[in-house]
Each structure stands twice: as structure tokens, then as C-alpha cells.
Design brief:
It is a single chain. The chain has helices at residues 14-25, 74-77, 80-100, 121-134, 162-174, 187-197, 209-212, and strands spanning 4-9, 29-36, 47-51, 65-68, 105-109, 140-145, 149-150, 185-186, 203-208. It is of the alpha/beta class.
């Protein structure tokens, strides 16, 4: 009997879209709510799309689990402050609102090298978000730290990321030399790993690419 209700923030991205599709395909999920700054073209009887301002979030619908896949790059955002507003502020605001809506388990799309003490701004922001989520009273927190993602961003109406393209090319040529946690990984594998772990998560769990690869 379907009894799970999930919220997805960032369903227009590579991993977020795969997470949302997986939830819609799961007979154990009764409803899925997608939060975003723009509407989705995807239609489904179980799906409700909420176009929101992440700086002024409304009360969220009651749910049991949350998937955070909001993310950008400093180049796309335009400045470090704008990057932080998405990758830290928006994700944390959704998590806090979701907790008030009854969510007990959370899955986060972070990044390889996330560390609140890192000298690299990108990695430091990712690590600070992980720490902030860990301080919230959720029963389970699953953090995915993928290496470079593989997927077609153009199909989602997004610009391609040069770093991902180069990483994929290098991975195809020299993949046998690259440790499993550093090899480029399909976004669908990351989504599948979170969908498998979050519904029964207890405590904090960190997933690296080597463990997520199918």
C-alpha cells in the first residue's frame, strides 16, 4: 500500500529529475511534490509542482522524506555569494521547512571533497551544508558525494558543464587507472542510490561514487 510522500527540491537538474522519476515510478510512493523556481513540463497523477521563491518559502505539504538536489556552479550563479544562496541557503531553508512538515528522512546531493574546513570555496560550502543538516533533528540523513556527473544537461534545457565533459572523456580513456570514487558517475546511479537508502535511513550515512555505481 502506497504510504510514502516525498518532496524533491531541484527536480530540474540531472540527479533531481532522476530522483523525481524514480519516486513517480515507485508503487510505494503515494505522492511527490517538486519544489522549483520554474514549472516542470513533466505531468503525472502523483506529482504536484510548486513554483516557489526559496528565500520566502511557504509552508510545505506534509511528507515523510525529502531529497535535496539544488545546486549550481559559481560560473553559472555569477558570484560566490549567489552560489552560496543556492547551494547552502536554499537547501537549508527547504530542509528546515520540511522538518516542520513532518519529514523524518533526508537525502542530499553533495559533492566529492565536501569539507567545511576546505580552503576551496565550493567544497567548503558543500561541507557547511552537510554540517548544518546534521544538526537538524532528522531520523536519517543520507549524503551522496558523487564525483563528476554524467548525463545530458541539454535535454533538461541546461548549459553543459565543461568540467563534466572533460571528466567524462578522461574517464573513458583512462578509467581503469582512476579509483572508483573519482570516476565520473551517471546521475541516474546517484539518484538510485539515494532512493534505495533514504526511506529506511537511520542516523547519518555518506555514499561515495564507488558505492553508488551500478
Amino acid at each position: 500500500m502506497a504510504d510514502r510522500v516525498a518532496i524533491v527540491a531541484g527536480a530540474t537538474g540531472l540527479v533531481g529529475r532522476a530522483i523525481l522519476q524514480g519516486l513517480l515510478d515507485d508503487p510505494g510512493v503515494a505522492a511527490a511534490h517538486a519544489l522549483g523556481r520554474r514549472a516542470l513540463s513533466l505531468k503525472h497523477p502523483k506529482l504536484t509542482v510548486h513554483v516557489v521563491d526559496f528565500k520566502r518559502l511557504p509552508a510545505l505539504p506534509a511528507a515523510s522524506e525529502l531529497y535535496l538536489a539544488l545546486g549550481t556552479t559559481i560560473g553559472q550563479a555569477g558570484s560566490p555569494a549567489a552560489f552560496r544562496a543556492v547551494d547552502y541557503d536554499a537547501n537549508l531553508a527547504v530542509a528546515e521547512a520540511a522538518g516542520l512538515a513532518g519529514v523524518r528522512r533526508v537525502g542530499l546531493v553533495s559533492a566529492l571533497g565536501a569539507d567545511a574546513r576546505s580552503r576551496v570555496f565550493y567544497s567548503r560550502v558543500k561541507g557547511e551544508l552537510e554540517q548544518a543538516l546534521g544538526r537538524l533533528p532528522f531520523e536519517g540523513l543520507v549524503i551522496a558525494r558523487p564525483s563528476l556527473l554524467v548525463g545530458n544537461r541539454e535535454d533538461l534545457g541546461q548549459p553543459s558543464r565543461r568540467g563534466e565533459e572533460l571528466g567524462f572523456a578522461v574517464g573513458r580513456l583512462f578509467g581503469w587507472l582512476i579509483p572508483a570514487n573519482y570516476k565520473p558517475i551517471p546521475a541516474t546511479d546517484v539518484a538510485a542510490a539515494l532512493l534505495a537508502a533514504v526511506p529506511s535511513a537511520q542516523g547519518k550515512q555518506v555514499l561515495l561514487s564507488g558505492a553508488m555505481r551500478r
